Amino acid sequence: MSAQNQSQSVTVPQIMRRKGLQPIVALTAYNALMAGLVDPYADIILVGDSLAMVEHGMASTLEATLDLMILHGRSVMRSARQALVVVDLPFGSYEENPEQAFRSASRVLRETGCTAVKLEGGVAMRETIAFLTQRGVPVMAHIGLTPQSVMTLGGFKTQGRDRAAWSAIEADAVAVAEAGAFAVVLEGIVEPLAARITENIAIPTIGIGASARCDGQILVLEDMLGLTDRAPKFVRRFGALGDAAREAVRQYAEAVGARSFPADQETYLPKK
Ligand SMILES: Nc1nc(=O)c2c([nH]1)NC[C@@H]1CN(c3ccc(C(=O)N[C@@H](CCC(=O)O)C(=O)O)cc3)CN21
Ligand SMILES: CC(C)C(=O)C(=O)O
Ligand SMILES: [Mg+2]
Fold this sequence. Notes:
The structure is a single chain. By secondary structure, the protein is α/β, with parallel strands linked by helices. It is built from eleven helices and eight strands. Strands 1-2-3-4-5-6-7-8 form an eight-stranded parallel barrel, surrounded by five helices. The structure holds 5,10-methenyl-6,7,8-trihydrofolic acid (MHF), 3-methyl-2-oxobutanoic acid and magnesium ion (MG). The site of 3-methyl-2-oxobutanoic acid has 12 residues, from strand 6. It is found in: Cytoplasm. Catalyzes the reversible reaction in which hydroxymethyl group from 5,10-methylenetetrahydrofolate is transferred onto alpha-ketoisovalerate to form ketopantoate. This is 3-methyl-2-oxobutanoate hydroxymethyltransferase. Its cofactor is Mg(2+).
């Protein structure tokens, strides 16, 4: 259905062919309004489980549910015309076994019309990624700083600062590529490790806090727009929408208080 109604003209094979050639542009979006802004410029729109924190004010991504991800995925799909839409599988919806992951992923694809799912984990998710991709579910992997493991990681900490940790993260990258993931998000890892992984695996790497040495980049939209209060070091603020919004709301409050809003041109009058 989605292919016929001309949404998501970017395909999984097209993304895979971009490796080493043209950088892949990815951003998150959580709803139809924001997806409409992003779609003309992005190759990939990710409906990230970061929406738990950014959109719902939760303390981590652990509280996102499958129903919540599907609700936001459906919203995004109403304005995605061009970009390939990926929806995060939330914590607890895929880790038990490949069967559980397939049940969750098939719900996401059927109920939203998106093209692919993303899940966190490397070697531990090898079987699950193979199970899904062999059954028609394109999978984007996510390794390095995996926010759903914030409890075991002890915080949102950059990975691979210590070279002793590199071989495990490289093994994760190789595992997800060999299992059939079409791309992998590298989050919060040091530059030389990102460069090594990008050079040594056959699928595109999409970096967030993982240096320019990746095949593409992703950021949380609200971070790069300057809408979020605090953002990690790896974020560049391409806009200052938070400041602009606060100033607009302040002026509205002032105008209502002074009865200068609504003015005549904002007021309905009866026929003369
Ligand atoms: N708004 C937002 N942006 C994100 O990029 C994002 C979320 N939310 N929620 C889910 C995860 C959590 N992420 C985070 C959150 C914090 C840091 C952070 O504070 N990093 C430290 C680095 C500390 C270290 O080097 O060990 C920093 O100062 O940048 C990083 C990634 C990335 N994701
Ligand atoms: C930041 C990206 C990679 C993500 O997983 C999310 O937004 O949830
Ligand atoms: Mg996520």
